[in-house]
């Protein structure tokens, strides 16, 4: 027996209460402590990742470094705390100190990460040195608190023993910790960060740590603790010869590979489910919550089984075989079931109703596998437990092995396997690895048993089963990558109306950050990224894409250096190619797969900008590039992904616009795309107010057609004079601007008057509209929560009408003489925009 809580010799009032192993009233308090710790840990994880992405970026590589640092700390803490902390110390007092330390580090991170960011930017660079520096930042900020987090379970484990009953309790403690994580995930994702900000959310998590620590101290004062086998311990409190069950090494390998598969699958399935459900912050919270609920339920079931079966190793091996089947089930569901559920996101504009549907779809797909991964942990504990072992060391070793495998799985699948093999082949690999895990677990069984005919037949059957299951895995339909959450209504409409003009897929690829489809229908080419239409050769889309380049380039007197955020189809970047003054075109693109594919299929429309000698492509997320770049530009045009996509709100924040402003030369112009479809009024008001907070003289320009606008272009300037319509027309009439004029005519702009007639308002006129709007800043990233709730809105016509109702003729902003000014006064006079029947915007 490793640990025993004995009756104290003290009696009378104030004496510690004797709580023995198996005491029914002791376990619930321990479960509460572990649940509170797990809740705070998940809140911190979400907050810390948001904070650190502002410093080192949100690319797949940066996220991989953050994940490796976070989980690496958990791994090291669980492995080394039982070796460094004496078993003589009261587990509850150790637990209290750990929780207090985590809370202190949580608050330090809130104030320390911005300081680290200022130090980081001074030495940031490209290439391997830059990646190493990003990794160092992640380690410095995340390793100290996660070391303490990793030690929490082993510390509490010493309150149990390594009998079957005690090992079962270990599993229940692990299960409670996961249940707390579920609660933390949902509270942070759906409430705390949506209503408050990262500071308040951090204080709440630290308060939970403090409450857990105080409760631990109170319980430690009431419950006495003495190691039962104290005579076997050295003076430091560590056993001279730690016990290890025969064949335990096989189990460590098995649980490590099981962890690899679990996190690898989470990466793959999150990628695919976010296509189907829409990549909002709420979607990611739902996916993570379902994953954790499965682990919680499975670990509870595994703990129940561990107490009752004498064949834990066989049970662990069987669990991995069943996992191969469950992974195949998820792959089948994602490819052949969920895409064809008749789920129309427009049936209800209530976001909470759609969240319920998303919850059901996630559970249907991934719960079986997560349940079995959850059961694997307590079964692995039972498989290596021996009477007399240190339960803290036992749980720490199993947890660290599982976490080490998880780190490898998360990094390998996110950075290598998905982009090199694809999601379907990655799932086939997961099936094979699960069967290998089963064979490894079976390898720990005594050899005499393994050499019998039945085990040999079972092993061969497992390999055959893996091959059959892997053969059943196929890619998700291309429509999932193209249409995402709207696949059901769009495919249904296509079946009814597009039979004469079927869609042809020209390109499909899965990159390290995004999935891409380029398709052609009725002579028009469409560019889709991760379930969203991002560009096309349709007239309205081409008009917007050219506006994002031509409007700021024409308003600037002589643009020489240009930064384009987002390559897309390359049309916006290609709009700068005809300008004779332009000497440098820097394009910042997150996904390396996109520029060559777009050049192949949109080269004519984007003037082959990728092959232009003035072009340089930087493969990084735009926020990080602008944060670390030293260059300044005459024009910066930002065409990011929709603001409801998780993480994109950093490109719509007040601080981001401040960074952009500092990287503009005097007289520089910034253009920002702002979609008003898939959005509601509160979201648009927040976007406008945030931009105008950085650019008080900012203006709005509309991509309108017959008075209806689906997209807006926000313009901000650093200094600059009034916009002279005559001077602009003079430039367009010059011989050097023939290609510029041709590019404009292709999208319906035949003169400077046509370009300037897209004016839709300015900050001073729109102040009554934005007076109560929420500002999106780096501390709250409010926009992604607002936009995620308004995703299904179809109010874009009314939003556009509301904005135009504040428009006045921009006297002093646009100047000129003669008929051109008269024409502008007519075109920009009081109008009532046409409000046609609501239809989905083409983009």
Question: Would you kindly provide a written description of the structure presented here, covering whatever features stand out?
Answer:
This protein is α/β, with parallel strands linked by helices. It has four domains: 1-230, Growth Hormone, Chain: A (Up-down Bundle); 243-471, MFS general substrate transporter like domains (Growth Hormone, Chain: A, Up-down Bundle), CATH 1.20.1250.20; 478-529, no CATH class; 542-827, Vaccinia Virus protein VP39 (Rossmann fold), CATH 3.40.50. Helices cover 60% and strands 10% of the residues. It contains 30 helices and 14 strands. The strands form three sheets. The protein has an eight-stranded mixed β-sheet with strand order 7-6-5-8-9-11-10-13, with helices on both faces. Strands 1-2-3-4 form a four-stranded antiparallel β-sheet. Strand 8, helix 22 and strand 9 form a beta-alpha-beta unit. The model is unreliable at 1-24 and 832-843 (pLDDT under 50).
């Amino acid at each position: 027996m490793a640990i025993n809580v004995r009756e104290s010799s003290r009696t009378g009032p104030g004496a510690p209460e004797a709580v023995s192993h198996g005491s029914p009233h002791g376990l619930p308090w321990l479960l509460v402590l572990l649940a509170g710790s797990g809740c705070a840990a998940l809140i911190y994880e979400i907050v810390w990742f948001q904070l650190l992405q502002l410093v080192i970026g949100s690319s797949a590589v940066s996220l991989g470094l953050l994940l490796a640092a976070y989980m690496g700390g958990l791994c090291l803490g669980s492995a080394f705390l039982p070796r460094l902390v004496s078993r003589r110390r009261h587990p509850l007092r150790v637990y209290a100190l750990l929780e207090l330390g985590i809370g202190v580090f949580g608050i330090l991170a809130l104030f320390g990460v911005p300081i680290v960011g200022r130090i980081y930017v001074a030495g940031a660079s490209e290439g391997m040195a830059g990646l190493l520096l990003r990794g160092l930042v992640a380690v410095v900020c995340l390793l100290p608190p996660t070391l303490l987090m990793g030690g929490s379970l082993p510390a509490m484990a010493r309150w149990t023993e390594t009998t079957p009953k005690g090992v079962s309790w270990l599993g229940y403690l692990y299960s409670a910790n996961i249940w707390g994580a579920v609660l933390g995930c949902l509270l942070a994702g759906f409430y705390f960060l949506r209503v408050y900000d990262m500071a308040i959310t951090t204080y709440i998590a630290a308060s939970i740590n403090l409450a857990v620590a105080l409760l631990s101290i109170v319980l430690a004062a009431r419950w006495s603790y003495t190691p039962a086998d104290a005579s076997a311990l050295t003076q430091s409190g560590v056993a001279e010869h730690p016990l290890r069950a025969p064949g335990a090494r096989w189990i460590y390998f098995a649980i490590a590979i099981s962890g690899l598969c679990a996190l690898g699958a989470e990466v793959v399935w999150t990628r695919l489910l976010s296509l189907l459900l829409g990549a909002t912050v709420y979607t990611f919270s739902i996916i993570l919550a379902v994953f954790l609920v499965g682990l919680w339920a499975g670990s509870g079931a595994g703990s129940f089984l561990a107490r009752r079966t004498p064949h834990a190793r066989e049970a662990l091996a069987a669990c991995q075989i069943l996992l191969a089947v469950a992974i195949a089930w998820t792959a089948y569901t994602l490819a052949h079931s969920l895409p064809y559920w008749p789920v129309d996101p427009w049936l209800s504009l209530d976001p909470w109703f759609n969240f319920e549907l998303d919850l059901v779809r996630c559970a249907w797909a991934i719960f079986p596998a997560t349940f079995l991964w959850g059961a694997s942990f307590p079964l692995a504990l039972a498989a290596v437990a021996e009477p007399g072992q240190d339960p803290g060391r036992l749980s720490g070793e199993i947890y660290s092995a599982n976490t080490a495998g998880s780190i490898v799985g998360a990094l390998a699948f996110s950075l290598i396997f998905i982009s090199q093999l694809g999601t379907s082949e990655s799932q086939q690999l997961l099936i094979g690895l699960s069967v290998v895990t089963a064979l490894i677990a079976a390898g720990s069984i005594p050899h005499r048993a393994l050499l019998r005919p039945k085990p040999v037949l079972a092993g061969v059957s497992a390999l055959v089963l893996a091959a059959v299951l892997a053969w059943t895995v196929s890619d998700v339909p291309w429509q999932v990558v193209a249409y995402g959450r709207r696949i059901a209504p769009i495919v249904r409409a296509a079946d009814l109306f597009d039979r004469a003009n079927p869609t042809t897929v020209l390109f499909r690829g899965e990159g390290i950050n995004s999935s891409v489809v380029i398709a052609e229908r009725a002579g028009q080419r469409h560019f889709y990224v991760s379930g969203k239409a991002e560009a096309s050769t349709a007239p309205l889309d081409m008009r917007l894409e050219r506006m994002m380049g031509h409007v700021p380039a024409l308003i600037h007197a002589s643009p020489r250096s240009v930064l384009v955020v987002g390559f897309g189809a390359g049309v916006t970047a290609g709009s700068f190619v005809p300008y004779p003054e332009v000497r440098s075109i820097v394009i910042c693109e997150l996904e390396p797969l996109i520029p060559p594919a777009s050049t192949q299929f949109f080269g004519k429309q984007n003037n082959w900008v990728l092959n232009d000698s003035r072009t340089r492509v930087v493969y990084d997320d735009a926020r990080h590039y602008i944060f670390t770049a030293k260059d300044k530009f005459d024009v910066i045009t930002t065409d990011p992904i929709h603001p409801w996509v998780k993480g994109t709100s950093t490109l719509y924040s007040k601080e981001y616009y401040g960074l952009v402003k500092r990287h503009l030369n005097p007289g520089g112009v910034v253009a920002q795309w702002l979609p008003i479809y898939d959005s509601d009024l509160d979201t648009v008001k927040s976007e406008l107010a945030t931009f105008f907070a950085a650019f008080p003289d900012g203006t709005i320009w509309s991509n309108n057609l017959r008075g209806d606008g689906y997209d807006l272009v926000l313009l901000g300037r650093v200094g600059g004079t009034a916009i002279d319509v005559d001077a602009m027309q003079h430039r367009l009439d010059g011989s050097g601007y023939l290609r510029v004029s041709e590019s404009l005519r292709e999208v319906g702009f035949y003169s400077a008057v046509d370009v300037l007639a897209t004016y839709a308002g300015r900050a001073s006129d729109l102040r009554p509209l934005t007076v109560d709007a929420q500002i999106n800043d780096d501390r709250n990233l409010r926009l992604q929560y607002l936009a995620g709730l308004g995703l299904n809105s179809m109010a874009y016509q009314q939003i556009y009408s509301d904005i135009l109702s504040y428009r006045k003729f921009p006297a002093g902003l646009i100047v000129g003489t003669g008929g051109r000014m008269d024409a502008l006064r007519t075109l920009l006079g009081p109008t009532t925009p046409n409000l046609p029947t609501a239809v989905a915007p083409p983009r």
